[in-house]
Amino acid sequence: MRSFLCFAVLAISGAYSADINLMHPLSDEFIDFINKQNSTWTAGRNFDRNTPMSHIRSLVGALKSPKLESDIRTIPKDVDIPEFFDARENWPKCDSIKLIRDQSGCGSCWAVSTTSVMSDRICIHSNGEKQIYVSDEDLLSCCVSFFEGCSGGYVFDSFEYWRTDGLVSGGPYNSTTGCRAYSLQPCDHLLMECPEYDTPKCIKKCDAGSKLIYEDDKTFGISSYYIEDDVEQIQLELLKNGPVVASFEVYKDFLNYKSGVYQPLDGIDNADIGSHAVRVLGWGVENDVPYWLAANSWNEDWGDKGLFKIIRGGKVKFFEQGMVAGMPRL
Q: So which residues are the signal peptide here (predicted)?
């Protein structure tokens, strides 16, 4: 009798798990299921229920390049590491750190996140004197060697391109203060108004309304490097030099993040959506759970006004293993 009861419980449990795995990742049922797990985070609607998963996959485009030992930078620990750190508060004069980008219907996360970090670091290391938005359009469209534009690109090599070829200025869609603004219109994911775009053409001149000269407007980096896969090393890098770029495997439950400290659900088929690049702004602890604070590029309607907290300590695939940054030439 006991063996029969055990078999019956397992059969019911197996059926329940199967039902969970059959749920659509953007369905109300899946969101409700997440919120019933009493995890460290809360789910909510960020995308229209009928958004094709092929479209979701087109938004993640961080390609992986080999990481050489010579490309890894180590920082001496000569300062105390605080429990909480937020780059927006540490460098309040730098407006770029506060900006949440919108990559639109293009897998340009690799370009948008890296130019954001470049912009932040130009401001930080010029003590706020240079407020320049490095053009994600210029990187997305003109960095073509081994890159796939809206189909994906390499974060480390983006910083290398900045060092060797330079990038002009350019703000978000319809902005007019830089040389090359982002040409792809912002998305409304909740209304499923987000067409998939082809990679913009590389036009080596400034926008029609700009008075800037393309070659004269370029900024350059002086270095590109990986940060050592170590929590303290990442914290020291953020503390001393500013935001960095992290690439990680996106799981289907992440699409529904709204608040709290994200960590992937256990016990379900939480398959990878693809590799995504985001900007890391700081860290902290919430309800005894350590986290990284990061900015996504799916606009301010996604997540916590475009931001998210993600568990710190290696529990999310690759998040801490491939963080990248570079220093600006001032």
A: 1-17
Backbone torsions φ then ψ of 61, nearest 5 degrees: -145, 35
Distances (CA, A) of 96 to 57, 133, 211: 27, 7, 22
Helix ranges (H only) for the chain are 2-22, 28-35, 53-57, 87-90, 95-98, 109-125, 136-142, 155-164, 231-241
Question: Is the C-alpha dihedral spanning 271, 273, 276, 281 positive or negative?
Answer: negative
Token reading at 274: 């693809």
Q: Decide if pLDDT at 280 tops 70.
A: yes
Cβ pair 122, 328 in contact under 8 A: yes
Report, as residue numbers or ranges, the catalytic residues.
Answer: 109, 276, 296
- Taking the C-alpha atoms of residue 59 and residue 104, their distance in angstroms, rounded to an integer, is 8
**Tens of pLDDT, residues 13-51:** 344 444 777 788 999 999 999 999 989 999 999 999 999
Count of structural domains within the chain: 1
pLDDT value for 12:
34
Task: Write the CATH number for 90.
Answer: 3.90.70.10
Range of the domain at 302: 2-329
What is d(CA 277, CA 254) in angstroms, rounded to the nearest whole number?
14
